[in-house]
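Q: Convert this sequence to structure tokens.
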Amino acid sequence: MTELTSMPVTVADNGYFRGRASTKNSREATLPSTSDSSQASTPNTDLTTTTLPDATMPVTFTLTSTKMASQQPTIPFDPTSPEPQMNANGDGVVTLTSSTLKESRARIVNSEKITFGEEGKGPGKFSFARGVAVSSYNEIVVADPGNRRVQVFSMKGAFLRLFPTVVPDVNGQAMRTCDVATDGKGYVWAVGSNVDSNRRHGYLVQYSRQGKPELNANHVLRNIYNYPPSVAFDAANNKVIVAAYTDIYVFSPNGSSYTSFKSFKNRAVFFITSDEGHIFVTEANKSKVQVYNHTGRRLFMFGSEGKGKGKLNSPHDICTDNSGHIIIANWLNHCVDMFTSRGEFVRTIAEIQSPWGVAVGPHGQMVVTSYDYTVHVTIFPRHMVYP
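A:
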């Protein structure tokens, strides 16, 4: 039986924290998590889905206020409060009890920005929170590569479920998931590598919303040479777009066909997104963004390396919002920046230590994964993204 633990609740009233969509579809609020257990780790061969009851079940938070995140007080918990319990039914689904939901507690930087996550193997914990997407169901989908799985959370940061990223037809092994995207039907598209110790090849796999792999949508990405692949879904054109080292793939969702082309000067590309027929890829080594159409014609590039406004310094994930703005996790500049569709700098949305993944939800919320000695996922409300 996996035993749940609870984390303290804190709040700050400063707008930003500084420390480490197409909806491509962090402190702070830390939601309940589970202690590490060998029984909680994800098996490579068994497909297990962890779910919560109805998302309308109330979750209680306790808040306080402080000026700086580094000065956040901790609110002590009531030691008489019972520990959360988990029920396991016959089909392997682990369900949190309603009493656990009522006693779910969080740590919040202010009354709006929410952060959750910590390192570990249990539900709601991460080896490393990497790529992120927000689905049309307003659910946050996070790639958890070291645990070889995908985890799903609500827009309040509550853990909903997880599933191992099994690759069909590869001995039932689960891949190290690098990035995720969701399509309009709720399917999760995941890319990863390191299946059967093969570090040269990557994989694109389609999963149902509950985590069942679809056998007709399993693609091998050749010769990625340890570069983590990235995936996006272009809703306007109903295409799945993948960046894999120097190759860019455009897939049909049914797996029937795809096209591919090489990146500019065969430069290694890192993260990818697509919007209205344009494909945007980041170059972490060159601090640039390449822009293509779906046939592979390069339209333009933007970005210059530096630390000033509008400069890029090892850009990681990239997404677009409903207005066509380009949003970039500016990793070594410790911020998330917004640009126009032509690559002109608009403003810095948030200062956050070492942002890695970024996605914008259907209602304008922004979700960022980051790592500053521990793992975080941060949800920024719409009014902080679009003041």
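The radius of gyration is 20 Å.
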